[in-house]
What does this fold into?
Amino acid sequence: MNHFELAFRNLKRRRARSILTILGVAFAVGSFITLYGLSRSVHENVERSFDEHGTDLTVKRRGIAEPFGGTIPEELIPEIAKVPGVADVAGQLITFAATDNDDNVLAAGWSPGSFYWTNAPLKAGRIPNPDESKVALVGGDIARTLGKQVGDDVTLLGEKFRIVGITDFHSIINRNQVIVKLADLQELTFRTGAVTFLSIKLEDPADEAAAERVSAAVEAMDRLAVSPSEGMLRNDSLFGLLTAVSTSMAWVALFMGVLMVLNTLLMAVLERTHEIGILSAIGWSKERIMGALVIEGFILSAFGSLVGIVLGVAGSKFLSAVPAIGRYVAVEPTIPLIAVTAFAAMVLGILGSFYPAWVATRASPAAALERA
Amino acid sequence: MTSKPLLQLEHVGHVFDDGRIVALRDVNLDFGKAESVAILGASGSGKTTLILVMCGIRIPTSGVLRWKGEHVSTLRQWTDLRRSEIGIVFQDFNLFSTLTAAENVEVAMFGSSASSAERKRRVEEALDTVGLANRATHLPQELSGGERQRVAIARSIINNPKLILADEPTGNLDSKNASAILDLLFDLQRARGSTLVMVSHAPDQARRCARHINMKDGQVVDQTSMPAREEAL
It folds into this structure.
């Protein structure tokens, strides 16, 4: 029997306490992975949805906090298209719109002939013809949710649109988006001549200097902000707020979990003061006793972290399955997030064991033995 | 030249509660090798405190203790002595409820240089010595009071200590078990040549020891050697 085996036996034979402590660590780790993963996923999913359209730079109204609140005049499209280094420009209007069954969907209006249409992968049906109106492309997931097929009607803001195609995008946002003609959505939202974003395709996306020159030229035109698609949410106040809230919740969950674990470990050690007295009486040094208690803390944290990873992944899948969340965000905890969180929990478990162990070994052996 | 005593207490005192309670007062005692000593006295006379001071579980507030002539003053020294030279048997056994009999014994060997196989062999040997070879895998709560005390004795002898301190080892046992435990302790003491210092309330038990120390109000009031009685038993 070595120290690890001794610790395992102690924990195994105090099953209820060990399980509760492991669950405490697990909930802290799981909550952090899920909530922090959620905050990261908001950014990643938005950026992925732009990537799928083949967008290199995104143009939005400078200084508007709401991501879909700012508008840009449509007539800027041909002007931006003339900027050297720009291969193509497309505009899209985006809004949350009421649909069938009192549901809401993300609706996008795409300008006619834009590269958005040509880059849209189709699962079924076809791309709308240039002269058609009141037709829609529906994302695969939302089509399934609403039970729609090509040829069916889908309601947007009280207006019926005929579904002509089902898209086959990968990103969760695009899989749940209803796409209509820009003019139709402008009319329905009283935003004639306006778009929410402009998407720029560069002639050479790898040429960073050219991208900077294009950005500067476009920003000089009007009150516009240009950012690479992967960083378009970096300075967005609303997404920043969302991220701050979910990140704060994640840290609060972790902090509460750590406190709970510290409390459990402290109680677990203090209730064993008598045992610690016996160990001292049979010749265990303070260092050896502390080592044994810290090993127990490590084992509890390690098991708690493992269970926490499972809970975190399950929690992420659960959040993704909630329609209100999963329609816009696929919560996918990354391997580095999981690894860092589990590692941090184990380190905290070890550090958290030191204090109770130190408290316990401070008592004189005689006093410890007297506490039966 | 005479050999040094195993343990010497020189003017040892111990007070509690900022000096309001005097548990030991100017105790001067020598304990030689292979002795059997009974500490007698009424409740509160300082017997248990004396035992705890003799193994460093309580550090005296005055006086000096010497182990084989060496002054023992630090907690580290006492910890080392309890690990290798001093075995302790308590009235209430003080076993770990989560560990089996064998594990309870083995846990006293942590820190020794013995290999895993060696430890296992010695644990089996110790349990066999106390008559519990067939109860090695039982938890303390699955053992009788007498068996628990046997496990505690096996634990106290596992490192072949020179001194065994027993604080009312039969206090929680019926007369039959008490007699068997005393037989075991004295057999081990004789067979291993160790010194046994035992606190007892019962005069008949104390009579099995070669030397009696009587205590009152924290002081040694009388010491008697009675080898003839031991031989008679």
The longest helix of chain B spans residues 175-192. The CA atoms of residues 13 and 25 of chain B lie 5 Å apart. The mean pLDDT of chain B is 88.
